[in-house]
Amino acid sequence: MLSKFDYVKPQTLSEALNYLEQNASTRILAGGTDLMIILHRNVETPEHILDIKGILETKLLEYKKNEGLFIGASVTVNQVAESKSILEKYPALVQAANSLASYQLRNRATVVGNICNASPGADLAGPLMVYDAKILIASVKGTRIVDINSFFLGVKKTVLKASELVIGVFLPDVSDGDNSTFLKQTRLKGHDLGIVGVTARMTADKKIRLAMSAVSTTPIRLYQLEETLSSQPLTSELAVMAGKEVRNIIKPISDVRSSADYRYHVSEVLVKRALQHLSSMGGE
Ligand SMILES: Cc1cc2nc3c(=O)[nH]c(=O)nc-3n(C[C@H](O)[C@H](O)[C@H](O)COP(=O)(O)OP(=O)(O)OC[C@H]3O[C@@H](n4cnc5c(N)ncnc54)[C@H](O)[C@@H]3O)c2cc1C
What is the CATH architecture assignment of 179-283? Predict the structure, then answer.
């Protein structure tokens, strides 16, 4: 049974921020696909629930050439999954969005909710990380911007303070010739978090960006390996080497979805495949 709470759905950002400032025990509600489970299980019993979906700024989904892509905090995963212009510019993001749960769930779930929930296995974290997305955070004190690569602090932990909400996330524009891919292994098709997620990006000037989910306490960027891969032509052999090297970087655990051993194996395979894909698209 759900515990009792006040439910508010402000129509302006300032209303929402004042409410957050005045009510410390508030949880923010976007699609609710993570939050409602926590509430149903009484894992948390907040006194206040603030629904952000009435706030205009959070509904914006806009791509501007030479600037980039803004995804407001109320934008659903399906809105991104179905966007042709986002697919063209940020393919890994659309691939990851399409892999998240089921169509029905994606109609509710938001991109920003996925990262604010801070699951180590969050599907959209990797794509946002390889594009160096910036998170626009607001409180009554003003706004601040945090790079997504500094956003996650641990399992279900982020840099967000109780009085803050995320307005949206911004991805800088990419040049022609930039490419990326997202690969994920799951136990079941749909309705499940990934056992391992890999996002690989090759920029127009052949620099490699690599991120992984479900192999550490947070989604991770593999900066050192990126440097090695970016300093030479991306060949199929180099992709094999990178797959093996990943085993020395990740720290997967055994849980209900997979043993750590299997995660090591899948990580090696998926990193190799993702890089070989980029290589076949013009890396060599
Ligand atoms: C059956 C099922 C299958 C799933 N499969 C997948 C999957 O395959 N891959 C995957 O990655 N996830 C999966 N999920 C998890 C979930 O659907 C996603 O994480 C989703 O993107 C969360 O978005 P939401 O809008 O529903 O977030 P909510 O549940 O509304 O919020 C999630 C958390 O973020 C906080 N939050 C939300 N918006 C903001 C904001 N603007 N500012 C600050 N804090 C905020 C909330 O307070 C809450 O703590 C699954 C969930 C279910 C129930």
Answer: 2-Layer Sandwich (3.30)
Q: Residue 111 in 3-state DSSP?
A: helix
Q: What is the largest CA-CA distance in the chain?
A: 59
Residue 39 contacts by C-beta under 8 Å, 6 or more apart in sequence? 2, 3, 5, 27, 45, 46
Tell how far the Cα of 245 is from the centroid of ligand 1, in angstroms: 31
Asked if residue 284 has pLDDT above 70, the reply is: no
Distance CA 263, CA 187 (A): 12
CB burial class (10 A; 0-12, 13-18, 19+) of residue 101? middle
Supply the pLDDT for residue 75.
Answer: 98
Q: If you average pLDDT over residues 194-210, what whole number do you get?
A: 97
User: Three-state SS for 24?
Assistant: coil
**CB-based pocket (< 6 A), ligand 1:** 27-35, 37, 52, 73, 77, 100-101, 105, 108-110, 112-114, 116-117, 122-123, 160, 165-166, 191-193
CATH number of 57-172: 3.30.465.10
Average pLDDT over residues 40-51: 93
Q: Atom 18 in ligand 1: which residue has the minimum CA distance? A: 114
Q: Where exactly are the structural domains of the chain?
A: 6-51, 57-172, 179-283
Q: Are 129 and 149 in contact (CB under 8 A)?
A: yes
Q: Please tell me the CATH code under which domain 6-51 is placed.
A: 3.30.43.10
Q: Show the tokens assigned to 108.
A: 């509710």
